[in-house]
Amino acid sequence: MNDFIPTQFLSPQALALLALIPAPNAPGTTNNYSGSGSGSLHNDSVDVKLDDQLSERTHAFGRYSYFGNGTSSSTIFGKGGGQGFSSPTNSFGGTASGRSQSAVFGMDIALSPKLLTDFRLGYLRYHVKTQKYDGEENLATSVGIPGLNLGDSFTAGAPAFFIENASGNGGDGLSNFGSALGVNACNCHCSRLKTSIRS
What is the pLDDT of residue 3? Predict the structure, then answer.
């Protein structure tokens, strides 16, 4: 054991990526890394409903609902990305904002003692905007990996890097870095690179 790949056999891209991961800093001999960060989360919601008996045979109602939320979080590996600190139960890293609005109008009319009509009209709008922790910085290009950051906002920022362990099963997930759903829960624009780093 304790086999190491000599540096001359590692690509400059691999070395640049490894340099993004902080060195172990936890006490003891386990070579663990411990990081801390901050995150914020806010939610705003409004519900309004009006009912009116327009006449003995006619009833109408209207409802409007609004929900807005936002989150912002740093990542455990800093420039290298990885898990975020948005909340104790969510590993999101980056910034996101969402807004959901819905409106409903309805009316029912009793045409006769045995016949009732009911009309409903609804509207729904849902908008979410997410941004990777590193924004428009083109991490893949800066470390020499072509073809991932293509100069537009859709492919900007860090791609996802998935570290496989010796058995090839993808590791524990905590060692993955960069940004993606499988790394820091960021459903951001896409770029992904799968790599293996084995000892």
Answer: 64
Side chain identity, residue 49:
K
Dihedral angle of Cα 131, 134, 138, 139, to the nearest 10 degrees: -130
Q: How distant is the alpha carbon of residue 111 from its chain centre? A: 51
Residue 12: enclosing H or E segment and its boundaries?
helix 12-18
Q: What is the DSSP code (8-state) at residue 79?
A: G
Q: What are the DSSP calls for 88-134, one per residue?
A: TTB---EEEEEEEEEEEEEEEEEEETTEEEEEEEEEEEEEEEEEETT
Say if 31 falls within a structural domain: no
- Residue 112 in domain: yes
pLDDT for position 5:
64
Give the pairing of strands 160-164 and 94-112: unpaired
Q: Answer whether 134's CB lies under 8 Å from 140's CB.
A: no
177 in a domain, yes or no? yes
- Which domain range does residue 49 map to? 7-22+36-196
Q: Which residues of the chain have pLDDT under 70?
A: 1-7, 29, 165-174, 189-199
Helix (H, G, I), strand (E, B) or coil at 170: coil
Question: How far is 67 from 85, CA to CA, in rounded Å?
Answer: 23
Classify residue 28: in a domain, yes or no.
no
Most distant pair of Cα atoms in the chain: their distance: 90
The token pair that represents 188 in the structure block: 């951001």
How many domains, in total, are found in the chain? 1
